[in-house]
Amino acid sequence: MSSERPSRLFRNMSAKIAAIPMALTALVVFLGGTAWTVAYSFTKSKLLPKWDLVGLDQYERLWSTKRWMVSIENLAVYGAGMLVLSFVLGFVLACLMDQKIRFENTFRTIMLYPFALSFIVTGLIWQWILNPDFGIQHIVRSAGWESFTFDPLYTADWAIFGVMLAALWQGSGLVMVLMLAGLRGIDQEIWKAARIDGIPAWKIYVMIIIPMMRPVFITALVLVTSGIIKVYDLVVAQTSGGPGLATEMPAKYVYDYMFRAQNLGQAFAASTMMLLAVMIVVIPWAMMEFGGKRRG
């Protein structure tokens, strides 16, 4: 065993040496930048970083600010809706695609195309679609239904769902592709055996297929959750956080305090809370994935 370990260590040495600059850059930029941000979140830095420690004052102020609390509530509503709807929609679309339909490649490309667009473009597109003056409401009223009303981005109680609609349009294609890859990786003999036993299709999915696709679901969960936590440009393009604070998000709070309010300490405290939220998602996933493989 001891002779095998050195041989593994020196295997592909040229590739490992070539990767050293990239690895060092990633460590310095990511870990160094993260440590710097967290450290200065305990200071009262304003326009420029200033090492003037104030302890937890920035965090106390953060969690006592109405705007931050509203942004957390909005993120919870948006996140819960996005997780449930994107997974349900993505899985259903993947199941339909898995039926070997005609023009599958065309449909798959169409469904995945919105994901290739930036969130800014997606936000502007759906801002136009949901605009009551020339969007869906205008088209339906022009067709004769004068009492029809559909302006979620201009109604505080429904604005967050207008943002969610645009995010679903863009992100469901990615979830669909991940689920489809998982479905295509399942042995066809399992399907044949289940059909011979007379098991209904919905039971096959619930009792057999979905448990076998656990790694795919976990990967999709990490990707979707990370996107939810850092959502910013979609909100700015559609509503700029309005009406009022109806679509305010933590990432927008960070940006506004960093560049508009020129309060770096408060922005760093908020970004540290966002980092903590991401770590709560990523670390358990990494432990399940890599820890399980190591034990295996």
3D architecture notes:
It is a multi-pass membrane protein. Keywords: Cell membrane, Membrane, Transmembrane, Transmembrane helix, Transport. Residues 72-285 form the ABC transmembrane type-1 domain. Belongs to the binding-protein-dependent transport system permease family. It comes from Sagittula salina. The chain is mostly helical. The chain has one domain (41-295): Orthogonal Bundle (MetI-like fold), CATH 1.10.3720.10. 73% of the residues lie in helices and 0% in strands. It contains 14 helices and no strands. The protein is globular and about 70 Å long. It starts with a helix and ends with a helix.
What key phrases describe this protein's structure?
globular, Sugar ABC transporter permease, transport, about 300 residues
Question: Summary?
Answer:
With 296 residues, this protein is mainly alpha-helical. It is built from 14 helices and no strands. The chain has helices at residues 4-9, 13-40, 57-63, 66-97, 104-116, 119-129, 136-142, 159-184, 188-196, 201-212, 214-229, 233-238, 250-260, 264-295.
Write the layout of secondary structure elements.
Elements: H1 4-9, H2 13-40, H3 57-63, H4 66-97, H5 104-116, H6 119-129, H7 136-142, H8 159-184, H9 188-196, H10 201-212, H11 214-229, H12 233-238, H13 250-260, H14 264-295
Helix pairs in contact: 2-14, 3-14, 4-8, 4-11, 5-8, 6-8, 8-11, 11-14, 13-14
Family: Belongs to the binding-protein-dependent transport system permease family.
InterPro entries: ABC_transporter_permease, MetI-like, MetI-like_sf
Transmembrane segments: 20-42, 75-97, 109-129, 158-183, 204-229, 267-287
